[in-house]
Structure formats: C-alpha cells, structure tokens
Amino acid sequence: MALSFFTPPPIFCRLTAATATSRSSHGNCTHALEANFVRLAADLSDKSAGLTSPHPYFGCVIATPSGNVVGEGYLYAQGTKSAEVQAVEAAGIDVCRGATAYLNMEPGDCHGDHTAVSALVQAGIARVVVGMRHPLQHLRGNAVLALRSQGVRVDVLGEDLLSKAVEEAQRSCRLVNAHLIYRAASQVPFSVLKYAITLDGKIAASSGHAEWISSKISRHRVSELRRRCDAVIVGGNTVRRDNPRLTARHGGGHMPMRIVMSQTLNLPQEANLWDISEVPTIVVTQKGARRSFQKHLASKGVEVVEFDFLNPRDVMEYFYDRGYLAILWECGGTLAASAISSGVIHKVYAFVAPKIIGGRNAPSPVGELGMVEMSQALDLIDVSYEQVGPDMLVSGFLQPIPDLTPVMPSIDETSAIDHTITPCEPNVIFFYKAWDPYGAFSNFSPHPIRMLDENGDYATWSSVEHFYQAHKFVGVDNPRAQAYVEEIRSAKSPEEAARLGRLVQRRHPDLVRTNWESIRINVMYRALKCKFSVYPHLNSMLLSTVGSVLVKASPHDLFWGRGREGEGLNYLGRLLMRLRSEFLGEHSCSSESESYPHDIRNTQ
Q: EC number(s) for this protein (predicted)?
C-alpha cells in the first residue's frame, strides 16, 4: 500500500466492478453503492500522485444503470487527457448513453477548456454524481452548472445525497485532495511533519548519530511520501548533522524541490544539497546573513531567498505565492516546534521503531512548545496506525480538514477562501498558475500550438512551455540536443517539460544554443502569438483586459515575473500587452511600446 495523504477509513473497502455487479442484482443502486462508486473514483484519482506536481487529483467512474463499471480514468496532470474523456473512451459511446458518471471532484477546467464536461454530455451520460465541489472559488460550481444547463442530472454528495455512507465517501474525496483544500482555506501549502523515533521518543543518540532509526521499508515509504510533495524542507541542524540528499531514492517519478531554512547561514561549504544536477535547492534565510556564503551558494546554482524576519509562517506564505500545494517537513525538533507554533503544520507522520537508545540529552522530534500541563497537549485528529516492517506508523491531522459547506461567497468574501482572487486595483491584472482566474495567460496553460520548425514543417506542441523549453536546444549540431528536443516535445505535461528543459540546461550547458539569452524573448513571443491567434476565446480574453497592466505574479521569477517586491522585469506580462496592442492595431501606441526593449519591439 502506497503512503498517501489519503488514508481510507477501515470500515470502507474499495469497490470492484465484480462487487458492483453482484450487488446491483438486488435492485437499483442505493446511496451506499453510489457512495462506493465515488470512493472508487477517489482511489483512481490518487494514482496520479507522484507523477507530476502540482495539480489536483481527478478520477471518473462510469457505471450502467444495472451497476456495471464500464469505464474508468484519472487525470495524469493538468493539460493531459481528462479523467472523464478517458472513462468515456474506455466505456465506448454506445455504452455510455443513459449511464452515470461518478467523480471524486467537480472538474476544474482552465479558461475555455471544457473537455471534461463536453465528453460527458456528448457521450450521452444521463447523470453525474460529484463527490465535492471544486475548492477554488472561481471554479466552484462552474462544471455543475454547465452540466445541468445541458440537461444532465447532477447530484452532489452532501447536498443532493445525504446518508452515513455519503459522509464517508465525502471524506474520501476531501482526503485525496487535502493538499488543495488546505491550501485554498489557509493560504499556505498543505504541510506534513514527518519524523522517525525510537520507542523512547528519540530522533538521534546523544552524540547526534541517527543512521538509521527506522527500517529500510519505512525509509522506502518516506521516499514515496516525498514524491507526493512539491518540496521537502529541513533546517540548518539537519544539513550539518546528516548531510541529506532529500531525493526520492527508490524509483523514478517526480522529485520535490529541496528547501533549507537557516537564520544565520551557518552551513557547510560543501553539502549534498548544494549539488543541483538532479533537483534544485532553495535556501531561505534572514536578510543580510553571510553575504559571502550567499555568493558561494549562488555560484553553485542554489537559489537564496531572504526574509526580513525568518519564521515558518512567512516562508510558507511565500511558497504559497509560488504555487506550491504540499510541503514535507523533515526537520529537527527546534524547527518542528516553531512550525507547529506558527500553525503551518497540518498533518503528522511518525515512524516508531522498536528500539531504545536512552540518553538525557538525546534529541526529541519536537522542541519546546511552552506547554506545562498535559491538558495543553495537541491532539491528533483521524489517527491511523499501520505496521511498516518492524516499525509502527502513526499518522493524523493537527488541524481538521476545512469545511466545504456549499455557500457561494460574494467577491468581497472570496479572499478569505482563495488568495488568488483577492480583489486588486482594476488597472492591474495578476496571473500566474494555470488554475488562476486569468490562468490562460500562463505559458503552462493546456493549449496546444502548431509552429513551423527549422525545416519549414509544422510541428505540434502541447503547450507554450513545451515549445519554449525545447527551443533551448533546437538547431544545436549534436544528436543529444535533438534527442532532448523530442523528449521535451513528448513530455506529458507542461510541468514535466519545464523540469526536463531546466535539468538539461543545468547538466549540459554545452547543448544550449549559444544565442539563447538573446533570442529567448522572441521564442516566447512567437509561441504566445500563435496561442492567442488560434484560440478565439483566448484572444477575446486578452482583448478584454484593455486598459489594464498584465503582471505575472511570480515571487521568484525576476525575468518573466514581477518578483516579491515588484523588482522583476515582468517580461511575460509585457509580451502579452505587446501582443494585445498588436491585435488591436495599436502599433503606434507609444505608451506601451516605450516600455519594451528594442529586441522585442521589432519582433516580427
């Protein structure tokens, strides 16, 4: 069983097609049976965990009126074939007519992309049962309304269907997308604290030696958990004492960003985390700390982010702005206590090994919290126990899963639920992630483009990001460069294309076009122009922003985005405004053209 944020209640078993068939012979589907179908969709959706990140998990199950499961599907990543399309294709159009589709979560299509809803409508699905509405407010209810407007009956668990079994299925749907729900409600990434302790509660010997407390089987499970996260965070003590790599060592798949949190930057000159050949590292620190060491890290390609006052809450709010959904904390007791006190830890995984090491000064997993009585102790919620080899895994939530009562707040209230739609000045429009209200402006949005290649032939790219990353290596007289171009073109998602392109650029700078720095703006502009030319709804969306400044709200990208304090160049926003002017025929408009450097004003 894979380690997951999604821990099924023991009273509920996974439904198979055979189980559905045998139970359906006793009559129409009951609420309990329908809840099980939704639970099956939640199980399916969890299969995408660790393959690409970040994105929500979607699953779809199609069942006939007699209760036979005829089609299943789950979303690999945003921009790939939707779970609904896969399930319809697996079942076949003829079988789908009059059938019911069960979804763990309401579809959340990027602007203008309605393939999930269209697949169900065109297949003749008569009814859709939705486990939960989308947690992001600007997407919540859209797909439900669209399906109902097409004459499809839609039942939402907890609203249209009510029973004990329905409540359990709802919980399964919330758990599988816990990272998205917590992020939307708390405006910080979903954070999991993980540690391994001896039976007497120690994470290391008095000497500091900690290799290994838990078993090899438990360490394998930790690697699985890492692959489900966008980043892994440790403190300076862990770097100095353990020199970790923080990679998902067992097998391939997504590898999370490594984050080191250190106030003084009292860190070793050489460390495994400074090797970014496989995965990047970010060091967060207090402003002004060891400038010379910051330069040393920068020379190795390690990103350094300074804070006026370094604390877990501000750090997590920063990574929220960067779009992270889930972060795994593998830190020592001091930082763990600070994170818990800051209210940013949502769940705990504790691996308890059947060992006793003793030691008055041996460290514990959580430092001082200021509690003097047992009545002050923090109680875990929804506690689960599982034996993992010789160890015991105890897990539970420190904070309850946020309530998803189906109330539609006004625009003034939405900022309390989803920071991405906080009202801003009407003359500034911020965009960043593809799921944001103006997410279609992102080069990661799932809109394929066809572009002429260097041979004069048309080639299809799954997104602007695919095209941009591949063109770092186009035209290089080296078979390996051409192989990487095709590998990036074939990447299943924009996130994977970006990771691959950046990784190859770091590992093999000799394969990057020698003129890349001077042409990359034009490469991006060509792809954007194609995208906004061939999709009428995107063109209309861009033109609807006339009079507004477009800003990529990336806090870390100082070239394409605005940066944390507005110090970035915002080239993506500027290119979109340039393109908007071109579409409007305002080439002579000096108010915009003067804000562009010479090399993009003259772009053909």
A: 1.1.1.193
> Which uninterrupted H or E stretch holds 144?
helix 142-149
Catalytic residue at 84?
yes
Residue bearing the bigger pLDDT, 95 or 248: 95
Tell me how long the chain is.
604
Dihedrals phi, psi of 14, to nearest 5 degrees: -75, 130
Compute the distance between CA of residue 299 and CA of residue 19 in angstroms, rounded to an integer: 59
What is the mean pLDDT of the segment spanning 335-357?
93
Asked, for residue 84, whether it belongs to a domain, the answer is: yes
pLDDT (tens digit per residue) in 574-585: 999 999 999 988
- Beta carbons within 10 angstroms of residue 116's beta carbon: 26
Per-residue pLDDT tens digits for 83-94: 999 999 999 988
Mean of pLDDT over the chain:
84
Instruction: State the angle between helix axes of 17-24 and 31-45 in degrees (0 to 180), rounded to the nearest 10.
Output: 170
Residue 534 CB coordination number (10 Å): 13
Residue 352 sits in the same domain as residue 215: yes
Using the 3D structure, point to which of 148, 176, 204 is the last residue of a domain: 176
Q: Which domain holds residue 306?
A: 181-369+378-397
pLDDT at 532: 95
- Say which of 84, 224, 330, 465 is annotated catalytic: 84
* Residue 291 placed within a domain: yes
Q: 430 and 345 in one domain?
A: no
Q: In the predicted model, is pLDDT for residue 268 greater than 90?
A: yes
Which among 84, 96, 105, 86 has a CA at the least distance from the CA of 126?
96
